[in-house]
Amino acid sequence: MTTADAIIALELGHYRLREQIGGSAYGIIWRAGGPHATRDVALKFINQEQMARALPAQRERWIASANNEIAFLQSLEPWDERHIVRLLDSGWHEGLPVLALELMATDLGKHMVALKSRGEAVPLPRVLGWIAQINQALAKVHQYGWRYLDLKPANVLLDRHLNAVKLADFGTNRQLGSLQAHSYAGTANWQAPEQFFPVDGGGYATGARSDYFSLGAMFYFLVTGGLPLRFCSDCGQAYREHHTAGADLLRQMHGGAIPAALHAEEEARFAAAIPSFMRDAALELLQTLLHIDPAQRPRHAIQISRMLNAIQGVKPVRGTFGTADPVLNMNRPTAENGWRGIQGA
Fold first, then answer.
1. Is the pTM of this model over 0.85?
2. Where does 106-311 sit in CATH, by number?
3. Is there a contact between 213 and 231 (Cβ–Cβ < 8 Å)?
4. DSSP code of residue 27
5. How far apart are CA 112 and CA 125, in angstroms?
6. Please, which of 85, 113, 132, 320 could form a disulfide with 168 given CB 3.0 to 4.6 Å?
7. What are 41-71's pLDDT values in tens digits?
8. Domain 7-102: which topology?
């Protein structure tokens, strides 16, 4: 049973449940004590109450999503986990898959709420650092042949002491190699237009650049102190009220067109939070990430990394190669770092 003090046996050890620390329609997260002399972990269960009410096809999708997440995290090399949550153990409990993940203090959604309640804001250099780290995490996902499709503050875990963030929750991953339109996946409040509005004939034609739109929505959210884009809020409300049919209704409200992703007043609000010497470069990145046409968004993580450097006035020296490049090097051990692992970097 998933109650306090219950013992959960997984492949590598036994875990004692302490308290429930999160949950959704899909999953439940518990803090749990691990084997002797180890740190507490986050145990992720499929929501059994929802499973009991779901149709067989839905139950199969949830189990497949959990297994998909386990398979993806198990495929990572140790040096790939710098900005992706670590899978520590996995197994089955009462016929459903369970993941034991590294436990982090909070997520960006909760952190922003706490800051707002205290009247505080995130310093811009920290925002840029977090966006750079999320960009690196997405680069890893894409490198392994997946599109993430669920980037949102609740899925970005935060270590407040190190100012480090890690991407979590990979149940919505879809293979990049598949060019066919897929079923609905993700969270409406944070999706790219092609992820919310289906193609003719049904289905959603997403790609790696769909993740970059969500990164732009995150960029706006962090810079403006926790304000969502109007486009994202409208999509979220349409989905809550009408499920996937909300996409057609939203288009009808805009004369058949997909609504604008970034409004002039939002650009002005964003720009007001950026120092003047950074403003043009920051706006260029935001506008590029939030372009309605996926083909007009950044091509890859390197381009985003360069645009982030431009915001801060950092110019790479010509003829040199950065060993921390998020795509070309992937933080792998190299001669430049003495063939050391990056795990503790």
1. yes
2. 1.10.510.10
3. no
4. E
5. 16
6. 85
7. 999 999 888 888 888 888 888 898 899 999 9
8. Phosphorylase Kinase; domain 1 (3.30.200)
